[in-house]
Design a protein that fits this description.
Blueprint: E1 8-12, E2 27-39, E3 44-53, E4 58-60, E5 74-78, H1 89-94, E6 97-100, E7 112-118, H2 128-137, H3 142-149, E8 168-172, H4 183-196, E9 206-211, E10 221-225, E11 231-236, H5 241-251, E12 257-259, H6 290-296, E13 304-306, E14 311-316, E15 336-338, E16 340-344, E17 349-350, E18 353-354, E19 356-362, E20 381-387, E21 393-399, E22 405-407, E23 413-419, E24 423-429, E25 437-446, H7 454-457, E26 461-466, E27 475-477, E28 484-490, E29 492-499, E30 506-509, E31 513-518, E32 525-530
Parallel strand pairs: 1-10, 7-8, 7-9, 9-11, 12-21, 13-16, 14-15, 25-32
Antiparallel strand pairs: 1-2, 2-3, 2-5, 3-4, 5-6, 10-11, 14-24, 16-19, 17-18, 19-20, 20-21, 22-23, 23-24, 25-28, 26-27, 26-29, 29-31, 30-32
Length: 531
């Protein structure tokens, strides 16, 4: 993150085993984790694969292992294999045995225990009542935020024993806030104290360690990624609601929502996508972005339109529950509808598998927890790029109004064409073709269908402008000598203004200013005049 409160270290559980010095040679077991370290100075992050052994020791691995093992993979390893610091990654991998690959995460509970760590010289500032309000009791809280953005799929339970109070423990640890930022040892010491007090930590899928803001750490929060029923997060301080969303989001499998700033489709700003809590944690209430919702299954497969041919697609806002969407007839040529459009990147194919895709989604301020969505995303089409194996999304473009296009490095094109209250229409072409156009036609005659004089027709015109484009250029059409006119236009809603000599004529039929949806088959427009 870009400042104290959204610099985060992300601990991703992954099938890797962490290196460490040890004299023992016996075989041990453990689980792979990934630790993402976000540095404040450069606003970037480093992924460190590691093994957490069953006796809670950490063994770091070379960075190359980040692509070798999956989160939550159980492995067997020998400490003697890690003693030689010159041992290369290939040799290390040969000495790590996978015992069990991670299973699919389904029907998980989200019971959370909050642990306040009291250091020898510093405490967490929030009282229990304040924390209860932040997490689940205030009119706007973390639990309800997750419920709304996940469409009731994720319910964090901060009162597992149903006694009406937050599940919270306060633990004294023998550490100084000015000492080393050793969050793992803090958690281990706290866990031991909790178990001595009778807590069964396995009863909780999420354990949250709150540490004083005055600690020497340079991050705002840490979170294990895709960690199933053994998740941890660390929060420095306690008051930032977005920070809980961000770190619990890591627990659910999301990586960062990043931004491409220079047009090369690579991440330049690790937390730059302000439309999603997985971007900066300094922004307030807004939903997770479209590809993250699709990744989690909150937007179901039937609402994900995957197309690699030229097509018009209607997108409903990702803030709308899929269950609330109603069947409606699509106006030709729109033949596909959903909440996320997915365009495969052909160049990323390995065999028949596409590794990277573009995602297009429409954003609106809908619901209690979307009110703080940045203005630049409201009524806009946001284009993301995402690898199938990564939880990271990269915002490569945001089309703020109709008539704007994103043209990818490979030439693919996504064009924003039109919108209404809850839906938008886009054109998608893997080949990069411009959007189809359709003919809008009509004629100008007198009331009795007799012709208007050519001299008067020369003083008449129809001005056409896209309805939802703030500063778009207008098109002026001049009728021919018979009073006929036509224009070739992309799909969308247009405002037509008929200009004529008002001192000589009045409109007998047709409106001087009207809204027209230009689509595959348009009825001719008839302007009828009387003197």
């Amino acid at each position: 993150m870009l400042s104290q409160f959204y610099k985060s270290l992300i601990i991703l559980s992954v099938p890797l085993f962490l290196l460490a010095s040890s004299a023992a040679a016996q075989k041990r077991e453990g689980v792979i984790e990934h630790l993402r370290v976000d540095t404040m100075e450069n606003s970037d992050s480093t992924l460190i694969p590691r093994i957490r052994s069953d006796d809670n020791r950490i063994f770091e691995l070379p960075s190359a292992f980040a692509e070798s093992f999956s989160p939550r993979t159980r492995v067997e390893f020998s400490l003697s294999d890690f003693r030689n610091s010159d041992l290369n990654a290939e040799a290390l991998e040969d000495n790590i045995t996978i015992i069990k690959n991670p299973g699919e995460l389904t029907d998980l509970q989200h019971r959370a225990l909050i642990v306040k760590l009291s250091f020898n010289d510093g405490d967490v500032a929030c009282g229990n009542k304040k924390l209860s309000k932040i997490l689940y009791k205030a009119k706007k809280n973390v639990r309800d935020w997750f419920l709304e953005t996940s469409f009731q799929n994720v319910d964090f339970n901060f009162d597992g024993d149903l006694d009406g109070n937050l599940d919270i423990a306060s633990v004294n640890i023998d550490q100084s806030v000015s000492g080393e930022c050793d969050y793992d040892s803090w958690a281990s010491e706290a866990d031991s104290a909790l178990e001595e007090e009778g807590y069964v930590l396995d009863d909780y899928e999420h354990i949250t360690y709150l540490v004083p803001e005055s600690t020497a750490c340079d991050w705002g929060g840490l979170g294990t990624v895709s960690c199933g029923d053994a998740c941890r997060i660390w929060i420095r301080g306690c008051k930032n609601k977005s920070l809980y969303m961000h770190e619990y989001g890591h627990n659910l499998g999301f990586d960062h929502a990043s931004l491409d700033e220079d047009g090369d489709e690579e991440s330049d700003s690790e937390y730059g996508d302000l439309s999603c809590p997985m971007g900066t944690a300094l922004e307030s209430y807004r939903h997770f972005n479209g590809p993250h919702k699709a990744q989690a299954g909150w937007i179901p497969d039937e609402q994900i339109v995957e197309y690699d041919n030229d097509t018009h697609i209607q997108l409903s806002a990702v803030e709308l529950s899929p269950e609330s969407l109603t069947e409606e007839a699509l106006t030709a040529p729109v033949t596909e509808s959903g909440q996320v459009a997915k365009l495969p990147i052909a160049e990323s194919k390995v065999g028949f598998v596409v590794l990277e895709n573009y995602y297009a989604s429409f954003r609106r301020k809908k619901g209690k927890y979307s009110k703080k969505l940045s203005k630049s995303y409201v009524n806009a089409i946001t284009i993301h790029k995402k690898h199938v194996l990564s939880g990271q999304t990269i915002e490569v473009a945001t089309l703020t109004e109709p008539d704007q296009s994103f043209i990818a490095e490979n030439g693919s094109r996504i064009t924003y064409l039109d919108r209404n209250k809850d839906n938008a229409v886009i054109w998608m072409s893997e080949a990069g073709n411009a959007a189809e156009t359709f003919t809008l036609s009509g004629d100008i005659k007198l009331k009795n269908d007799s012709p208007v004089s050519e001299q008067d027709l020369e003083k008449m015109s129809i001005v056409i402008k896209k309805k939802y484009v703030r500063n778009g250029e207008a098109i002026t059409i001049i009728p021919d000598s018979s009073g006929a006119f036509n224009a070739s236009l992309p799909y969308g809603t247009y405002i037509l203004k008929f200009r004529y000599p008002k001192k000589r004529y009045k409109l007998a039929k047709g409106k001087k200013r009207q809204s027209i949806l230009v689509q595959q088959s348009n009825e001719p427009i008839a302007y009828r005049l009387k003197k």
